[in-house]
């Protein structure tokens, strides 16, 4: 059976992305080594070092920039993360200066969600799991 091992999110600046995804969101850096002019830079959820990695992938092609912009302009998240408490996460991230596009919201029969900017060109959605 297949399992998800690695997913990527396009970022416009790997150094800025590393700082945001580790220092602000709280992910743990797993891999970081040079690949040409860029880096193979991955993060994982704390305590899941053997779990799914998120590659902070540099945009090396014009079509990647167009794709990222199209998602952002449409208000669509590049990636979605789960949280046990979206309201608490919103308060924590707001305290760290994160800009939210959608405050915690719950539609009937749906989980609570929120949408914020990662500062690297992406919108990130969080939803309340469980």
Q: Order of strands side by side in the largest beta sheet?
A: 1-4-3-2
- What is the mean predicted local confidence, pLDDT? 96
What is the correct CATH architecture? Answer: Roll
- Percent helix, as a range, is 25-40%
* Overall tally of domains: 1
Task: Give the CA-based shape.
Answer: globular
Strand content: 35-45%
Task: Give the low-confidence spans.
Answer: none
Provide a count of the helices. Answer: 3
Over all CA atoms, what is the radius of gyration? 15 Å
Order of helices and strands: EHEEEHEHEEE
The CATH superfamily name is: 2,3-Dihydroxybiphenyl 1,2-Dioxygenase, domain 1
What's the arrangement of secondary structure elements?
Blueprint: E1 6-11, H1 14-24, E2 28-35, E3 38-44, E4 53-58, H2 62-73, E5 79-83, H3 86-95, E6 100-105, E7 113-117, E8 123-128
Parallel strand pairs: 1-4, 5-8
Antiparallel strand pairs: 2-3, 3-4, 6-7, 7-8
Q: Could you explain how this protein is built, in words?
A:
The protein is α/β, with parallel strands linked by helices. The chain has one domain (6-128): 2,3-Dihydroxybiphenyl 1,2-Dioxygenase, domain 1. The chain has 3 helices and 8 strands. It has helices at residues 14-24, 62-73, 86-95; strands at 6-11, 28-35, 38-44, 53-58, 79-83, 100-105, 113-117, 123-128. The protein has a 4-stranded mixed beta sheet with strand order 1-4-3-2. It has a 4-stranded mixed beta sheet with strand order 5-8-7-6, with helices on one face. Strand 2 (28-35) and strand 3 (38-44) form a beta hairpin. The chain starts with 5 loop residues before the first strand and ends with a strand. The mean pLDDT is 96.
């Amino acid at each position: 059976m297949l399992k998800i091992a690695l997913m990527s999110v396009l970022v416009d600046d790997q150094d800025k992305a590393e700082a945001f995804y580790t220092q602000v969101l709280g992910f743990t850096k797993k891999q970081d080594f040079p690949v040409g002019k860029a880096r193979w830079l991955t993060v994982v959820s704390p305590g899941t070092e053997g779990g799914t990695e998120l590659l902070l992938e540099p945009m090396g092609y014009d079509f990647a920039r167009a794709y990222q912009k199209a998602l952002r302009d449409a208000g669509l998240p590049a990636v979605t993360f789960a949280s046990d408490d979206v309201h608490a996460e919103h308060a924590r991230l707001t305290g760290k200066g994160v800009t939210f596009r959608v405050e915690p919201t719950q539609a009937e029969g749906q989980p609570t969600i929120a949408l914020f900017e990662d500062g690297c060109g992406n919108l990130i959605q969080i939803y309340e799991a469980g």
